[in-house]
Amino acid sequence: MQRRQLLAALGAAPLAPFATLAHAQGGWPAQPIRWVVPYPPGGGTDVLARTVAEALRSELGQQIVVDNRPGASTNIGSQAVASARPDGYTVMSADNALLAYNEHLFSKLPFSPEKDFTYVAGLSRFPLALVVHPDFPARTLQDFLAHVRARPGEVNYASPGNGSPHHLAMEMFKHRTGTFLTHIPYRGAAPAMQDVMGGQVPCMFLDLAAGLPVIQSGKVRALAIGSAQRVPALPDLPTLAEAGVADSEVYAFQGVLAPAGLPAEVTTRLNAAVNQALKAPAVVQRMQAFGMEPLPGTPAQFRALARAEAKRWGPIIRATGVKLD
């Protein structure tokens, strides 16, 4: 998307009315909280946000309204939050795209990931798995590499969109293995996954938050996982390193941001509420079922993780040549 088109799209996305309401005299929170998800419904980010939001409702005594704002590699939803009042009634899910990738993918952003947000809390980290349609003629990662090397550019791969963790995971994989696959971007993880299951596109990197059930059911076949160690939910699935592709750890991580200038007392209370929500039985069960690793901690710890990932991915993105403007 060209920068002019991006800015036009951002300008066309007004904030929900209750995001601009002033503090009630009774203290925070005195009204519903809007949780912006910068992806369509159905993907791992959306599933995690709705699961934690339900637990937060009990912790904070207010309704948490999930507001899906997809588009422009999360920049549309991110701009909506960066522009909101820092009153504690607008928060968002933030992942690798906003926190680690976009500053390297775009020549200029309409906001700063470091300066225009308050880092509130970590949520989760979950690895990405390379999956193929069951009819794809490869049962191991080495089979897959042999197949695509014999057909440079002929094998397509899906992703939830340009600049998504899934897209960049495959671009790094291509760079590490010297292969050439053609990217087919979708608007979200759910439609991309549906087309891989249906055989319209043969493969993709899929996050376990959305993909574990379809892997376990056999609707797609996983070839390798992008974690440092094997995951308990898929104990027989080798890591990329074990399968012969070194230095290729790929995972999605997520946390909660608010607009810059959020009062310290609100940040502290919201951080404590999120950390407590991550211990709720329903959240623990859902995260374990989807192979997620919880990321409780302080706002400073979440910020440190985000900046370390931005530093790690900068050279990788430059090496792959991926740009989004």
From TrEMBL:
<dbReference type="Pfam" id="PF03401">
    <property type="entry name" value="TctC"/>
</dbReference>
<comment type="similarity">
    <text>Belongs to the UPF0065 (bug) family.</text>
</comment>
<dbReference type="InterPro" id="IPR042100">
    <property type="entry name" value="Bug_dom1"/>
</dbReference>
<feature type="signal peptide">
    <location>
        <begin position="1"/>
        <end position="24"/>
    </location>
</feature>
<keyword id="KW-0732">Signal</keyword>
<dbReference type="InterPro" id="IPR005064">
    <property type="entry name" value="BUG"/>
</dbReference>
<protein>
    <submittedName>
        <fullName>ABC transporter substrate-binding protein</fullName>
    </submittedName>
</protein>
